[in-house]
């Protein structure tokens, strides 16, 4: 059982429901859409990421003998027979990765026989929710510091290995420069950064020896960590070492600060480096950083050239989850609508149309029905998988990253800021509203059932 | 490259440092300890979990050809040669899983040649940090609702698949009853729970048909979801259905509420079920729950028998990370101490001694040196791996769960509550304090180096 691709990455109810669907011959086409119900506090928009992993999961979905054996202890033979031949045969529509989106706009649609579409729910949410969460968080640092080196430092405190890896991918796609996580570099071809930890300095008797040892091993990657004992004294050691290394044509590339008052240290260290002839050496900062700290440092013109962002990025610390759901919108050709208070959904298969103003900036979206409801604007939802097979060769991560950064240029200025912006305009098309109303009217049979049952309640409640 | 066991699950600096260690022949024994610097707000203690996954990682650590090929594009041949034969040969000391612990108490110690001990840092933190985080969160629900059915519902919004799986394991070890995540059940032998989603109800034209279909498929697992349309009306349908199913000897086991005012609905639904002769049917609740909501519901005696806890559990929503670090405490036989302001560490290899009062409750801990510093109390740190091999067969998860629950009985009453308790007493032994002072004194050479360098600063700063 592969923990990252097993079809048992599902909630148990997906299998109990599946059994009933099979027994009741409920295998007609179901349409589920994935969307976020509301923005978390402090976010003006979200960035859709995770589609690649979803498509890979769906394309390779099958049950191993071991998985079937486990299920056979809980489900009858006809369920196991069905699962033995299971593969995903549905269609997937989605926004391209890196698309900016808003609440109630579907970012992914699954169209498949009901048991299939239901079975894949939990892992689809699990993948899209997390990567979208992290990309949306990373975007904020990219918007605050567009010209700085931004590196994902968060794997150690990410929630497990997959979170660390997908956080590297999502943040790179959102515009980060790279990651410290080696495996993310190897798997996704993301630039990898890193030099030394405090333990490296401490394992040496002298800090200056540690610096020199490192520089001699890594003449092209000499970013020296200078805050283990006395940051300014260490900056002077760097200057002295740079002089010494000139003879061997080794150049000090920069220094890293990881604690203390970053603003004060950066200013003093910059001065020391400059006076020591190391004007080109960069200052890289890390340690409890997030987009707010970046904003504070950069708006006071603190001379820092790059940032390592760890925990706050990989767990999206100020908003560690999204209210992300996967809802049935149609079954057997009939649109469905959940009417629960505050949780009502827009029924049917939907398309999003985005308009742009004369300045090129996003000016408003319309949520419309996919069919017979044409609107002005760019269509955001595309067919990406037909009958279980991906439609076209994937874009590279680098290409998607460029497109994502291009999308930021079309954000209205207020929305690109960290502060809350006026709500972006997302309208519901007349036809979609009419369909929702019509469904509510048609649900008379359901209402009659409820009101008949309510009569009975009197028997039970005085 | 296996994303969950690859030795590339490391920060890049672990490899750059390794190269220098090899080139400088720095392969003597290093001692690193893992500890948490401070409690997150709202926690009175933490519960150590994740050791099993760490030992498995260390025992199986080796480089594949593919991994070596990738590294060979960045590191010289002598590094690749070393890694080709790499396996972890160190010792591991740790607290047993399920041990209650406090800031500055090491929960894991690695004793290994420096390049080995350094290479495994990031994945060790990644595993121990997350499982400890989740077990510590789960414990709070178990303490609030010790006699209720508590089920992990959080996989879909956990941060990736591994987080979902490890959250099931950590919460079960901490006393939860089980999980909804099928793969966690299959991998760890955790009880698995689940019946139906709203989409199941919506795919049927009538709610009562959905209920009956499910009951006929799953006569032993009929927990019916009753909040899709009108919760109380649905409860009446359940009573009517129960009557109808008696002929077929099918018993309704219970109902689930997932939205609305859970207290009000539970009280009304209980009344309907009781008057309908379903006194034994349980009420299970889910939907945005955490330990605070459980506490509110149970302290008002709301008749709920079990809870599904999702997002808040799997992301530890109120404290999604711990200040968890892995620090060099000794190298080449010499204790090391990081002296940075506010981040000073206690040097050397340590043992924790725990005392209990006459009432059997925990009364205080002493952090002492492992050798020649005997103290009263229970020793919490044990040798669990010697020279890269585990010492004894693992305890089962079920056994660890029982021991964990037994540990809760020894918590002082105030610490077992949700509210902040007075700080638990953790003292530093006289010998450990003396060692720290002695190291500070001995670091005169380092201080001299710094003060000499500080002289130079004048050249650079006016």
Automatic annotation (TrEMBL), chains A, B:
Q: Which UniProt keywords apply?
A: Glycosyltransferase, Ligase, Phosphoprotein, Pyridine nucleotide biosynthesis, Transferase
Q: Does the keyword NADP apply?
A: no
GO cellular-component terms in the record?
Answer: cytosol
User: Which GO MF terms are attached to this record?
Assistant: glycosyltransferase activity; nicotinate phosphoribosyltransferase activity
Enzyme Commission designation: 6.3.4.21
**Nicotinate phosphoribosyltransferase N-terminal domain segment(s):** 8-128
Write out the function statement from the record: Catalyzes the first step in the biosynthesis of NAD from nicotinic acid, the ATP-dependent synthesis of beta-nicotinate D-ribonucleotide from nicotinate and 5-phospho-D-ribose 1-phosphate.
What family is it from?
A: Belongs to the NAPRTase family.
> NCBIfam families in the record, alphabetically?
NAPRTase_put, PRK09243.1-3, PRK12484.1
**Name the UniProt record assigns to this protein:** Nicotinate phosphoribosyltransferase
């Amino acid at each position: 059982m592969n923990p990252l691709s097993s079809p048992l990455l599902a909630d148990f109810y997906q299998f109990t429901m599946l059994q009933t669907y099979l027994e009741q011959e409920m295998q007609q086409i179901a349409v589920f859409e994935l969307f976020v119900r509301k923005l978390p506090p402090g976010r003006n928009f979200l960035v859709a990421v995770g589609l690649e992993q979803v498509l890979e999961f769906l394309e390779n979905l099958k049950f191993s003998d071991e998985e079937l054996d486990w299920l056979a202890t809980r489900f009858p033979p006809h369920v196991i027979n069905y699962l033995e031949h299971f593969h995903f045969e549905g269609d997937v529509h989605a926004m391209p990765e890196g698309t900016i989106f808003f609440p109630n706009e579907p970012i992914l649609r699954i169209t498949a026989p009901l048991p299939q579409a239901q079975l894949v729910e939990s892992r689809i949410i699990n993948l899209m929710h997390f990567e979208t969460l992290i990309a949306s968080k990373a975007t904020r640092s990219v918007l605050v510091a567009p010209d700085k080196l931004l590196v994902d430092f968060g794997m150690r405190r990410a929630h497990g290995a997959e979170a660390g890896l997908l956080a590297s991918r999502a943040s790179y796609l959102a515009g980060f420069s790279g990651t410290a996580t080696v495996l993310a570099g190897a798997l996704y071809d993301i630039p990898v950064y890193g030099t030394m930890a405090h333990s490296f300095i401490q394992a040496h008797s002298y800090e200056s020896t540690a610096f020199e040892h490192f520089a001699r091993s890594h003449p092209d990657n000499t970013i020296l960590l200078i805050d283990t004992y006395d940051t300014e004294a260490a900056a002077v050691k760097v200057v002295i070492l740079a002089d010494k290394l000139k003879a061997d044509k080794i150049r000090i590339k920069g220094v890293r600060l990881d604690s203390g008052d970053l603003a004060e240290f950066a200013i003093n260290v910059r001065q020391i480096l400059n006076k020591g002839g190391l004007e080109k050496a960069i200052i890289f900062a890390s340690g409890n950083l997030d987009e707010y700290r970046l904003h504070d440092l950069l708006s006071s013109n603190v001379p820092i050239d790059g940032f390592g962002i760890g925990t706050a990025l990989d767990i999206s610390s100020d908003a560690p989850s999204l209210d992300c759901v996967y809802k049935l919108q149609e079954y057997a050709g009939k649109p469905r609508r959940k009417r629960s208070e505050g949780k009502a959904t827009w029924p049917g298969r939907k398309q999003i149309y985005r308009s742009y103003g004369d300045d090129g900036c996003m000016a408003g979206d319309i949520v419309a029905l996919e069919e017979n409801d044409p609107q002005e604007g760019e269509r955001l939802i595309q067919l990406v998988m037909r009958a279980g097979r991906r439609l076209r060769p994937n874009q590279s991560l680098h290409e998607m990253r460029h497109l994502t950064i291009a999308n930021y240029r079309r954000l209205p200025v207020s929305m690109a800021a960290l502060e809350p912006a006026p709500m972006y305009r997302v309208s519901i098309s007349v036809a979609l509203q009419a369909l929702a109303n019509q469904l509510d009217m048609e649900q008379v049979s359901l209402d009659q059932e409820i009101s008949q049952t309510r009569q009975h309640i009197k028997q039970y409640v005085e």
